[in-house]
User: What shape does this take?
Amino acid sequence: MAKSAVVIGSTGLVGKALVRALLTSDDIKSVNALSRRPLGFEHAKLNNVIVDFEMLENHRDEFRADYIFCCLGTTKKQVGTLEAQRKVDVDFQYRSAKIAKAEGVQHCLLVSSSGANPSSLSPYLKMKGDLERLITTLDFEKLSIVQPSVLHGPRDDSRFGESLAVKLLGAASWVPGVSRYRPISGEQVAAKLLAIALEQDHARQVYRLEQLFER
Assistant: This one.
């Protein structure tokens, strides 16, 4: 039986690729894509809901689905402060997952990061670790956490530092200890998310970078 999905962060690199993958899958009957701005395309299975993430509770109906994919994220450069970044990367995603759980969603799929750790000295990796911990407390029937490294692919915004990291890490991916940080495309992460969602026999699992490259 075809399933329904809600996607948070559907205008980002992974989220946009994921929405398109979901729409072309015969196993998915409908997609609620919640975003701050329009996706820019239409599809018979797509319901693009423009939301104010400060008012997520006003959109509870749109969270009723079989899956929630949490792909929301930003950078300090985009929003100005670490506090503002945390609101997007942690608070909005946790609140979204909490609403989805209350509305009956059974499977949560979260895009985190390699090195995510609530005790990390890196503010970014600490945010990701905090988010993993918070969403784990919601006790979804199924929880899948993917931990990609640096992402590459077409973006609406320019990220010079990320582009440089993609080149350097890609060139040095053969170096011991560096391979776990090798770049991965948004399309590859999206394809793995869909494959994980369609699996039948797992409850909770963390997918590290090397597993995201597996077919």
Remarks:
- The chain has a mean pLDDT of 88.
- The chain has one domain: 3-150+185-210.
- The two ends are 23 Å apart (CA to CA).
